[in-house]
Specification:
By secondary structure, the chain is an alpha/beta fold. It has eleven helices and 18 strands.
Amino acid sequence: MKTNWTFLLALLLFALPGLAQTPPPDGLVSPEVHADGKVTFRMRAPKAAEVTLFGDWMPVGSKHPLTKDAEGVWSTTISGIEATIHLYSFTVDGVTMADPVNPRIKLRQRTSASLVEIPAKGAPWELRDVPHGSVESNWLRTAVINGETRQVFVYLPPGYEKNPKQRYPVLYLLHGSGDTAESWTQVGATNLILDNLIAEKKAKPMIVVMPLGHTVPFGSPREIAAKNTPLMEEYMLKEILPWAEAKYRIAPGRQNRALAGLSMGGGQTFAIGFAHLDLFSALGMFSTAPDRNFFVSKFKTLLDDPKGTNAKLKVFWYANGDKDPVFPRAKEASDMFKQHQIRHTFRVYDGGLHTWPVWRRCLSEFAPLLFQ
């Protein structure tokens, strides 16, 4: 197995939030997570006129002011943040930036944000004393996407190396717009979630393949961006699936294949999954909303044949937060499936936004349904 030491270091920082609390030489700590769940954010900027904070638990476009002390340190303490992982950033005199003393960074296609983890005792994504799988970082040259060399992350369940004759089912897991190939492990805690679910015998041991989902440059004009999903479909079918199922001990057959994704990746799952039910027996869409015309125009035969469609889909699981901007359209899509008697689960999270706290919960509930 190839070892990517940079990735392992990043994973260690992710798994042990306490490491991020080690005071730097000047003694400044940010963020500081208190025992009662409150979080103090700090920024040293003695010459700044204004410093504000934005976190993913706040309404989009809002900002929370920080107060400066005599030493030029701006700070604020916030309570009531959900116990899980969150993205946040500072804006200093109009310039938005990550927290300069926090090593935990969420990498994105454009700009980056800082991460704060508020421990949640008993949560599926917490680090526990259970057998752990591994995460491999692979670099693949693709003929489909202009000869690029692209990263693919693969989770291997505990015991994979010790059981050379055992084959495993596979989940192909896609990220959202602006994310990178490592987002599902770096922020989504896919490896820890699967480790815990497998240890509790709530989920089958499985392989998880996480490719980069931007097949055209992020931020491309609309006419170019429209090619992203069709090209992702070609990339998945011609390269990712054959490569993964040749390199890893993946059990054959559609009954051992699932496809899921969040936001953009959920849209890709709708398009690729429903077009290839001969390849996938389970589909999961998180925080996404297909247009009714998309199904009526492209998949009308599936809607008009509920018996046949239901026979092919062992799991069709669809989830959104009710505060997510796409929720109204998501509800309309679920109602459309009901009207056509397409069997599915529509999970709604009270207060859920378009954020990683929702997507961690999605994976935690979706994974146990697979390959049963």
